[in-house]
Amino acid sequence: MKNLPALSPAKLREGTTVDDMLSILADEIISGDIAPGTKLDARVIAERFAVSRTPVREMFGHLAAMGLVEKRPNRGVTVANITDELLLAMYEAMSELEAACARLCALRMTLEERQALQRLHKDALRIVRDGTTSDYEAFNHEFHTHLYEGSHSPYLRDLALATRSRLKPFRKAQFRMPQRPSLSWQEHDAIVVAILEGDGEAAARATRSHVMQVSISTQHYIDEHRL
């Protein structure tokens, strides 16, 4: 079993949080900096981030929920092997869930919800032009949340949220690819137009296509960094 490789000290603000560590470790696992089969040592990671082992153990729990690590009795925590087939299967499920949400949005969103979605989408164009990736990531999260809530289907919303949580680090990786925020905005535009027109089937098709493009971009990122 591989041991955790030597990594540069994390550049973090004072008061490191579980989310800080989770974001950094997830990125390193997805990019291949920490390879599948690597054993994660809580003591080593705690020293790296200058925290106690308690938040590190909590962070391990989040990584396990995302499927990025495996926790086994007497074997500790090791980095999981996320196959291309498994990643594609997760994105296929996500595409169907979000397509269902978008279709229901076109049928059920109130006028106020449609206007809010349209404003959010238009405001994001400035972010795309500015080229601020982190801001676009935040917008993207809010945009898809609008789709979940706008479906007015609590059970479907919860399924979508759970699947999004599992895919969060992978969806984030897409924005490391050139021009991805701009392309994402264009794909969102087709979704918004269909919802505003009340065309449920068009909204579902546009959303399904969008999520699968995210899948392709994510896979390209992984392939480039694991050569």
General description of the model:
- With 227 residues, the protein is mainly alpha-helical.
- Helices cover 71% and strands 6% of the residues.
- The chain has 9 helices and 4 strands, in the order E-H-E-H-H-E-E-H-H-H-H-H-H.
- The chain has a 4-stranded mixed β-sheet.
- Mean pLDDT is 89; it is low at 10-14.
Which terms summarize this structure?
mainly alpha; 227 residues; elongated; 4-stranded mixed β-sheet
Helix content estimate: over 70%
The overall pLDDT average reads 89
Order of helices and strands: EHEHHEEHHHHHH
Q: Please provide the count of β strands.
A: 4
Low-confidence stretches: 10-14
Number of H/I helices: 9
Oligomer: single chain
Main beta-sheet annotation: 4 strands, mixed
Strand order of the largest sheet: 1-2-4-3
Mass-distribution shape: elongated
N→C terminal distance: 21 Å
Share of residues in strands: 5-15%
What is the rounded Rg? 19 Å
Structural class, by secondary structure, is mainly alpha
